[in-house]
Specification:
Elements: H1 11-15, H2 29-40, E1 51-56, H3 59-68, H4 71-77, E2 82-89, H5 102-119, E3 123-127, H6 132-139, E4 145-154, H7 164-168
Antiparallel strand pairs: 1-2, 2-4, 3-4
Helix pairs in contact: 2-5
The protein binds flavin mononucleotide (FMN).
The site of flavin mononucleotide (FMN) has 10 residues, from β3.
Length: 184
């Protein structure tokens, strides 16, 4: 699907999309840490920085992370060399009160992370399709952290390796019209 831009915006936003054709090429932790660094500098309410990550990059943790994905995601995401779980701390550290903005701020951090990945020639694909309770158990994540998403990170591989149905979806998705985003 062709994307149409109504206004001129930065190239990285234009070129980022969510592919499924991951290459099995391994990445090092040093290649992933700059993405965490980009997330680190996202703005957040009271500078709480509620975003937290579990980086599955070794075979043992990758297998644990793959096991919590829904089958429809496993078929393509199992090839990704890195699976990144993103969680958000629900309370402010300074007073232990509820932080209404924890998901908002963590979303911003994921946005920064995905654009830094794009700049470095890496692809990212976020997934909501996974078993959150299982993820909490498998990685022993405390209740004070909302588990939001698992992101596949890697390099682009070969579209032909996807099953035919997924090949037809292997393109950047379009968007609703800019004007529709304005409520009033
Ligand atoms: C929080 C979140 C959850 C998502 N969950 C899934 C998922 O479980 N499986 C999947 O294939 N894509 C998933 N996606 C990818 C979206 O479908 C995709 O971002 C959207 O269609 C826009 O396409 P684009 O990222 O290529 O621009 C998810 C994206 C986000 C941000």
């Amino acid at each position: 699907m062709e994307r149409k831009y109504n206004y001129e915006i930065m190239d990285l936003i234009q070129s980022r999309w969510s592919p499924r054709a991951f290459s099995e090429e391994k990445l090092s932790r040093e290649e992933i840490m700059p993405l965490i660094e980009a997330a680190r500098f996202a703005p957040s309410c009271f500078n709480e920085q509620p975003w937290r990550f579990i980086i599955a990059i070794d075979e043992e943790n990758l297998e644990k992370m793959r096991n919590v994905l829904m089958p429809g995601n496993q078929v393509w995401a199992n090839k990704a060399p890195v699976l990144l779980l993103i969680a958000a701390k629900k309370t402010f550290t300074y007073n232990n009160k509820e932080n209404f903005w924890h998901m908002f701020d963590t979303g911003t951090a994921w946005g920064f992370l995905s654009l830094e990945a794009q700049r470095r020639g890496l692809i990212t694909h976020a997934m909501g399709g996974f078993d959150m309770d299982q993820a909490r158990l498998s990685f022993n994540i405390p209740e004070d952290y909302e588990i939001i998403t698992i992101v596949a990170v890697g390099k682009y591989g070969n579209k032909e390796n996807l099953d035919p149905k997924l090949q037809t979806r292997e393109h950047p998705d379009g968007r609703m019209e800019t004007e529709k985003l304005i409520l009033k």
